[in-house]
User: What shape does this take?
Amino acid sequence: RQERGQAEEARAGAEAAKAEAQAAHAETQEALATVEQQALQLLRMEHLKSRLFANLSHEFRTPLTLILDPLERATRGELGDLDDYARHSLDVARLNALRLLRLVNQLLDLSKLEAGGMELCAREEDLVAFLQRAVDLFGSEAERLGVRLLFQSETDRLPVYFDPEKLEKIVFNLLGNALKAMPQGGKVLISVRSTTTHAEPGGLDRKPGPAYAEVVIDDTGVGISSDKLPHIFDRFYQTKTSPTSQGTGIGLSIVKELVDLHRGEVRAESRLGFGSTFTVRLQLGKDHLAPHECVEDGPDNEPFSAPTLLPEETLLATRSLPDSPRPSSAPPPAVPATATPDGASRPLVLIVDDHTNLRELVRRHFAPHYRLLEANDGEDALRLARERRPDLVVSDILMPVMDGLELCRRIREDENLASTPVILLTARGGDETRIAGFDTGADAYLTKPFIGEELLARAANLIRRRRTMRDRFSQEIVLEPLDRPVQSADVAFMESIYAIVEAHLNDPDFTVARLAEEAAISQAQLKRKLRAIADQTPVELVRTYRLKRAEKLLRGRAGTVSEIAYDVGFNSVSYFAKVFRELTGKLPSEVMAEAEEVAAAPDLSS
Assistant: This one.
């Protein structure tokens, strides 16, 4: 009986333990489900936050564009003469607009870094040349501040794998910080060298390690106290080393995270009252980087040539203006001139934006030099483009009905519009949006707030390039199409047209209708496309091609004038001679005589 009681007690204990285990398992499963649900919710919130930052960027950048552009024009004197007080007031307004723009850019960078959405696009470049250009860009501003800005390198060239855009932000942040609180007569030295040692985390001890490129920015400024130094790379931490220092505590934290993205190191040394030294180390070679983080140099990966934010703007956004009014010393930049006369011959530009004020701003820049069309969404713009065939399209990206990316894609798919240059304007300044724009076939991409002179310069260059192509096809028909490299869809189209004309060269009954039929497009489309590319009608193009072929045959003494006229599709020798002279300035018989003289001349080369 006692044993039976013990067994029952043991059984009851086991059942109780089993029940406890099951309860614990259920609790664990419930906790895991809760954790998974919370993780999913956090992920959704992260996506929502990233989308919110992107949308806020657009909402901030558009009004900033409308604020900065008239301020820039007014300070250059384009809106009339200003007294010192008015100029100073405009400088203050411009300063604060630039400060707001810089803050927007930094918050966007921060959100991308937090979300892991910022990717490295590193390629091998000369770090010495890169830093020298950066120093040169800051030189005039440093001189104006009375600060000596020096550059020093132990080698003429130092190849390093880095992302130019991100290293630009690192260098500009550090140089801007060094200059912003620098007293007059101070000095900033930026130096670069290669080294095989690196710092221990959290200390100054050195030990042998991988080969690094070391960039040092040393200044004689106010310095940072020892109790604040360990926290300067923390987000939103501000040192307040001087009464005039302003900022959000974001810049240095972005520097740290961008250096980390390169698998590099950054550290700071400082003594209050004696200046600061910031050191950035980037590992040499590319073994420390993932394959997808390295890109080859090429047309789509142009090396650093100009900063995203001009040094003057970087400095203006981090320091205060002087108390007394000062006149602007910079002369107004010249507006890019177009080589076309006033009137109907001026290029036609289509401006597309759903924001009325921004459309008006772009219109003011283009109005003195171009004829203009306007649309408030991509669908309306596409209709206007098909009707009016503009020389250039300038479009925003974020629009209702049809956005700028889809508009660009539709333009490139339309054979009558495919050669039309497209400039995209956007408030979203990230790499992803810019790459998406170029993927759809955009020719240029400007981030708001844009500089009006840059927009006009880009426009003039694109229109000039398109007209050069027109001139090439309208004036220089080459008779060996296969020997010419295909450079674009327009060139490929013209090659196919030349091949068709060549196949029917001696057929006097060959018509525009047959040319269109063999090119698989309508006569109206053929006419519009040839006018856009070669600035010729189909009849003019076929006739010019035949006459160029005839000139080559005449110089090659391939037959009599009559025989060659018939060989190239003319059934009237007199008409052939008339149009040949109009094109070349000579009669066919004169060209034939020149060829005979060349052939009869003695060969003096031997």
About this structure: Residues 342 and 368 are 9 Å apart (CA to CA).
